[in-house]
Amino acid sequence: MAVTISIEIELGWGVHDVGEYPHLSEDGDAERAALRRLLDRCDAVGVPISFDVVGHLFEADCGGDHDGPHRPGWFENDPGTDAARDPLFYAPELVREILDRPTDHEVCTHTYSHVLCGDADRETVAWELDRAQSIHRDVTGEETTSIVPPRHSRPPSPALREAGIEVMRMSRDTSDRGRASRLKELVVGPHPVFEPAFVDGVVETYCTSYPSLTSSTLPSGQQPPLGPFRALPVGLRQRLHRQYLSRALDAAAARDGDCHLWCHLYDLSNDAQWPGVSSFLGELATRRARGELAVRTMAKLNDAVRAEAQTRA
Ligand SMILES: [Zn+2]
Ligand SMILES: [Zn+2]
């Protein structure tokens, strides 16, 4: 079975359409420190991650207008400055740091300006993907084949294929199973097992609708968890988080399935979430060494699913 980890890096772009940023640190320092700590740990255990990055973060500066076909006001909260003045909107050094690490991470796209692809018109989606690919070529030397659409809002498959995108992460909502079982899933699991599928020329890999690498019971970035969770001792919540992650592997192994865990960089950007994730990365490396599982980026997962589809054909 294979495990994929993907992490959204969006900083201010994740909610620029809302314009409120209580989950983020003011200057992006907490998020940058969390990324560095994560990359160090990945290098120590040799675990690669797919980082899906908002394209605008690759920019060192901009004039604030991007003259695309977006709805009026879409770039209203784009500061039109530079990385020194608005580090939540420009972060080229983060992309550089991921690429410069010895571990073979993947830098993929989360669109150029965090557009909700299912709501936007065709021209806007095409512009976003085109702009994202062009900045990937400039910075990484190649286009990306992987996308995580913002808020899992589904882009039309032809637009993806035209932009050279071959694999996409989508979420599957399990909240229809009822509130009690949803709560139980969030706290103790088991993480559901979803197989990747080949849909309309694009490989789809599925994850939960809630961040699954980090815990809903612990603070998400700078924001506290929901009230009912706060009543439990932090140490207990951290143990439950760690168990949730191990059980996610057990559940996938039992069904010989795949497991795709994800979160936003900001979710991880506090000291409550880190022990569970750090220790889990070690468990992944150990179980991989025992031959129990493979760890694949989205690009590698894409290769594997396509190869398998060809053998079957
Ligand atoms: Zn801009
Ligand atoms: Zn996002």
Note the beta-strand portion.
5-15%
What radius of gyration results from the CA coordinates?
A: 19 Å
Parts with pLDDT < 50 across at least 5 consecutive residues: none
The number of helical segments is: 9
**Average pLDDT for all residues:** 95
CATH superfamily (homologous) name: Glycoside hydrolase/deacetylase
Each distinct ligand: zinc ion
Descriptive keywords:
313 residues; binds zinc ion; 9 helices; five-stranded parallel β-sheet; 37% helix; alpha/beta; TIM Barrel; 13% strand
Task: Explain what the structure shows.
- The protein is an alpha/beta fold.
- The protein is built from nine helices and nine strands.
- The protein has helices at 29-45, 92-100, 122-140, 157-162, 179-188, 227-230, 234-254, 274-289, 298-312; strands at 2-9, 50-53, 106-109, 146-147, 167-172, 197-199, 202-208, 259-264, 294-295.
- Helix 1 runs parallel beside helix 8 (274-289).
- It is globular, with a radius of gyration of 19 Å.
- One zinc ion binds at residues 56, 62, 64, 66, 78.
Sum this structure up briefly:
The mean pLDDT is 95.
List the helices and strands and how they pair.
Layout: E1 2-9, H1 29-45, E2 50-53, H2 92-100, E3 106-109, H3 122-140, E4 146-147, H4 157-162, E5 167-172, H5 179-188, E6 197-199, E7 202-208, H6 227-230, H7 234-254, E8 259-264, H8 274-289, E9 294-295, H9 298-312
Parallel strand pairs: 1-2, 1-8, 1-9, 2-3, 4-5, 5-7
Antiparallel strand pairs: 6-7
Helix pairs in contact: 1-8, 7-8
Bound molecules: zinc ion (2 copies).
